[in-house]
Amino acid sequence: MYDICVIGGCGHVGLPLSITLADRGKKVIVYDISTEAVHTVRQGTMPFHEEGAAGLLQKVLADGTLELSDSPAVISQSKIVIMIIGTPVDEHLNPNFQVMVDSVNQCMPYFRNGQTLILRSTVYPGISERVNDWLREAGLTMNVCFCPERILEGKAMTELYSLPQIISSFTPAGLQECRDLFGLLTTELVEVQPTEAELAKLFTNVWRYIKFAVANQFYMIANDYNLDFYKVYHAVTHRYDRARDLPKAGFAAGPCLFKDAMQLAAFNNGNFYLGHSAMLVNEGLPNYIVQKLKVKYLLNKMTVGILGMAFKGNSDDIRESLSYKLRKILQVHAGSVLSADPYVTDDSLLPQAEVIAQADILIIATPHKQYQGLDIPLNKVTVDIWNVLGRGGLI
Ligand SMILES: NC(=O)c1ccc[n+]([C@@H]2O[C@H](COP(=O)([O-])OP(=O)(O)OC[C@H]3O[C@@H](n4cnc5c(N)ncnc54)[C@H](O)[C@@H]3O)[C@@H](O)[C@H]2O)c1
To answer: What is the 11 CA–ligand 1 centroid distance (Å)?
Structure first.
């Protein structure tokens, strides 16, 4: 028997949680449909970069508190089941309910009466209640809970122990299970109703997405007036607490923020001006850069080098990365496009030194820490929307 089964436990959210719970002494079994990921993790290798996770993974495997399986049968052998699968929007930017429907249906034969099912994916509000209904209709008596994950990729191994955990359940027994489980990680638990918890998670992500859009719009306004955004940014934020949370400009991408803004828009019957505007601003930034370069330079005769293809700094995660969108647009407008990333393995990338040497224009698209103090000749045109080099962000 296992204390906990984590469905989707080889993913960016599932694996750090599985490792930390196993490190707290729980007997954890990871169930994942990806046989390849299960094999990799079982060997003690992280399938993606997550700061500080590799050593702890090897420890919990050696301790025997973490095991892995690609068979759903292990669900039946577990007291608590945590489900953390991806919840994308479809090609029309609508929530894709089918992913949850299919995953719950696949697991249904293995669920047992008396088990606690904790949903931890970011979901369209009301999904937890639907899952609760499906299980009851199937004759199962389970405690259904919704406890969203709010970690920042790359910081999971510290944030899992430091962030307050939002917990909710349809039954008092389920809520107590959540208190006991997440109480292993933190002393701060925030108890709400399931739909409140679902909305709290969406609000958390969309708040960030809109803040990034504000910074990006400010960046474009300053730049259009030939002013360096970062001089203005410094003036606004320097020892001025009320503006301290103004983010730097840069690509706001990845598998969560955009799709969660669209989930919230769908939940509000498509009426979400701020969310849609944020999407237009953030998704429009790559094209804005290219159009600016076209006005200033003979772009179609030049080689452009992109440094950073991951969607965020110090990460190998390229899911929904705007660097790839930038490259696609440049492939139409520039003479040629080269790209590099110290974290990403991708056949289309070249060594960084080669990209720097060959490019007429360099764009720092991802704020990897390796780029700070990078030796780029001063006479080479450099676009640094994040101001990683500290030379400003003017295009
Ligand atoms: N990535 C983040 O930083 C982050 C942060 C907070 C919340 N979230 C949310 O967490 C959820 C998961 O995101 P992620 O980034 O970990 O996704 P991911 O794609 O990295 O991981 C999902 C895992 O689930 C597995 N899987 C998919 N369907 C399955 C099934 N039916 N049975 C068993 N395994 C299955 C996949 O093989 C994969 O390993 C999403 O809802 C996301 O919005 C993500």
So the answer is: 5
